[in-house]
Amino acid sequence: MQLTINSLSKTYSNGVKALKDVSLNLSNGMFGLLGPNGAGKSSLMRTIATLQEADSGSIFLDDLNVLQDKTKVRQLLGYLPQEFGVYPKISAERMLDHIAQLKGVGNKSERKELVAALLDNVNLSKDKKKSLGTYSGGMKQRFGIAQALIGNPKLIIVDEPTAGLDPAERNRFYNLLSQLGENTIVILSTHIVEDVSTLCSNFAIICQGEVLYAGQPDNAVKEM
Ligand code: ADP
Ligand code: ADP
Predict the structure, then answer these.
(1) C-alpha R_g of the chain
(2) H or E element that contains 109
(3) Which residues pair with 215 in a beta bridge?
(4) Which residue numbers delimit the ABC transporter domain (predicted)?
(5) Is the distance from CB of 61 to CB of 1 less than 8 angstroms?
(6) Higher-scoring residue by pLDDT: 222, 154
(7) For the chain, which terminus, N or C, has the lower number of CB atoms within 10 Å?
(8) How far apart are CA 210 and CA 17, in angstroms?
(9) 144 CB less than 6 Å from ligand 2?
(10) Judging by beta carbons within 10 Å of its beta carbon (0-12, 13-18, 19+), is residue 57 exposed, middle or buried?
(11) What are phi and psi of 36, to 5 degrees?
(12) How far apart are alpha carbons 57 and 205 in whole angstroms?
């Protein structure tokens, strides 16, 4: 898969220029989006996730016109926003089954198998009956990833997933992310340089809506 972002710009109604002529090429693997708060990372991710319009520019996922074919993009997409709510009284297992059902994944027994595999993947099998309201921040993030993985997405977008996690939870979460298949584009936004250097094959630095650098972490160290 190839994600091609070309000259993307966005100015909010309050006059903030969140994206200025952003162009990036992403291939399969983990791509880091590094930048301080307010850089435009979430704006870019929400636009790729078809949740917000751009003023100009284009985004293509292979031949798919992302800004136009929203329904098709959403079928290929797993999105974990920076903050997401959970229904506190429902168990992880029931919630995943419910989402799988909404996404039209298989019959009851197929869903049961899928949910069990997802929970195992994110190391929540033993907590699957607990209600989501009792989950720690790290457990909630891992649940979020399981939720984002339903339906085998080819494009996975995770927005500052480790904010509020302790170091052990962060490592567990990253182990999980780095296992996500080779035929998938994973975009990870962060303001932590180390996240990018340990996890990502490619990355971009974005600041005040502009791409300051795009390339591989190893080369970046040499060039800076
Ligand atoms: P909605 O589309 O529901 O009206 P908004 O467009 O107001 O929501 O906000 C979309 C996202 O951007 C939310 O996460 C919100 O917290 C955030 N947001 C809104 N305004 C600002 C702002 N001025 N600066 C930073 N983030 C903002
Ligand atoms: P980041 O994810 O890197 O923190 P954002 O994309 O959230 O950056 O924000 C980029 C800029 O756009 C910031 O100045 C922010 O205040 C502003 N912004 C974000 N969302 C909105 C919104 N819905 N309405 C107005 N301004 C916004």
Answers:
(1) 18
(2) helix 108-121
(3) 203
(4) 3-224
(5) yes
(6) 154
(7) C
(8) 10
(9) no
(10) middle
(11) -70, 170
(12) 19
What the block records as the tokens of 131 is 């209600």
Nearest atom within ligand 2 for CA of residue 37: 4
Ligand 2 within 6 A of CB of 71:
no
What's the CA gap between 131 and 129, in Å, rounded? 6
Q: How far is CA 147 from the centre of its chain?
A: 11
Which bin fits 188, alpha (ψ -120 to 50), beta or left (φ > 0)? beta
Q: Express each pLDDT in 40-58 by its tens digit.
A: 999 999 999 999 999 999 9
Q: Is the CB of 40 under 6 A from ligand 2?
A: yes
Sheet with 56-61: strands ordered across: 17-27, 2-11, 56-61, 64-65
On whether ipTM exceeds 0.90, the answer is: no
Pull the structure tokens for residue 215.
Answer: 């390339």
* Locus of tokens 């909010």: 12
Q: Which two tokens stand for residue 157?
A: 């977008």
